[in-house]
Amino acid sequence: MAPNRRTAVARAGTNIALVKYWGKRDDKLNLPRTGSLSLTLAGLETVTSVSVDPGLQHDHFELDGHIERGVPLGRVGRFLAIVRERAGAAGQFSRVVSRNSFPTAAGLASSASGFAALACAASAAYGLDLSPEQLSALARRGSGSAARSIFGGFVEMDPGVLPEGDDAVAHELVPPAGWNLRLVVAVTTEAAKDVSSSTGMAATEETSPLYEAWVASHGIDLEEARLAVVGRDLQVLGAVMERNCLGMHACMMAARPPLLYWNEATLAALREVWNLRARGVPVWFTIDAGPHVKALCRVEEAAAVKTALDKVPGVARTIVAAPGDGVRLESVG
Hints:
Elements (H helix, E strand, L loop, with lengths): L6 E13 L4 E3 L4 E2 L3 E17 L7 E4 L2 E2 L2 H18 L6 E7 L9 H16 L6 H11 L11 E4 L12 E5 L6 E7 L9 H11 L3 H20 L3 H20 L10 H15 L4 E4 L6 E6 L3 H9 L6 E5 L6 E5 L1
Parallel strand pairs: 5-7
Antiparallel strand pairs: 1-4, 1-14, 2-3, 4-7, 4-8, 5-6, 8-9, 10-12, 10-13, 11-12
C-alpha cells in the first residue's frame, strides 16, 4: 500500500540524561536495563526531512551537508525498514536530510534528537498516525535516548518489562515552562568521540566489575530524582545526578579495556562546578558518554556559571540552554 503522504519535516531537541541509562536488556529492540530521567533542551535541535521517492532503489541519508554511507546509512535504513513494515510500504525508499544545530557524535546526544525527528518525520511521510507514546516506542528503536526527546521538559523513561518492549516508553514529568532552570554546556571539543555510545555501553556491561552494582543502586537514584523534579528541589536533584553520573563513568573506567570519554578540560570544568558550589552558587554537573560538562542551575545563576566555565582552560565555548519542547511535525506535503 502506498503511503498517503510523501514528504514530512520534523524538529526535535536533544535531551540530557540527569539519571542515566547505560546498558540494554535487549539489543535488537533497544530495551534499556534501567529507567532514566532527562531534560529536553531548547536550541540544540535536529531538523529532519523524509521524502518518499518511488525512483529510489535504496535509502539516501544526508547529515549536515554530507552524504552518509556505511554504518550511519545502515542505521537509518534499518530504522526506516521498521516504519515501512508498519505502513505496509515495503520497497518504497526515502531521501533523508538532517541538520544538527550542535556537534554530531560528540557527547551532546545527537542520536536522541536525530532519531526522534526521524521517527516523527518518517511516520508522517509513510502515513502512520501514532500517539506520543507509540512515537516514543518507535524512536527508541533507533536510539534508546530518542524515546525521551518525543516529550519536552523533564522526562522519565520507563524500561518496561514486556519482552517486545511496548511498555518501554517515556512520559513527561514537568513541562518546559514548569521549572525555570538552565543547563550550561561546557563544550570541550568539536570533534567526534573515538568510541560510540553503543560500543562503549556494550563493553561496559560485558566487562566492568562495577556495572551490576551501579544497576542495583539505580532505582534509588531514579526515585529520588523523580521526587526532586516533581517537588522542584534542585539541591536533591543535583546531588543525585552527580552521583549517578560519576557511578556510570566509574563503571566505564573499570571496563576491560578501560573507557574514558573525558579530556583535561572535562576534569577542569567538573572541578570548577565544585568550586562554584563551595562559593555558594547552587550548581551541579552531569557528563554523558563524551567529554562535555553540563551544569544545571537556576536561571538567576546561569550567567555566572557560564562566565566561570568560559574561563576554564580547554573549554571551547559554552551554551546556555533552557528546557525545550518535545518533537514537532513542521510540515507534511
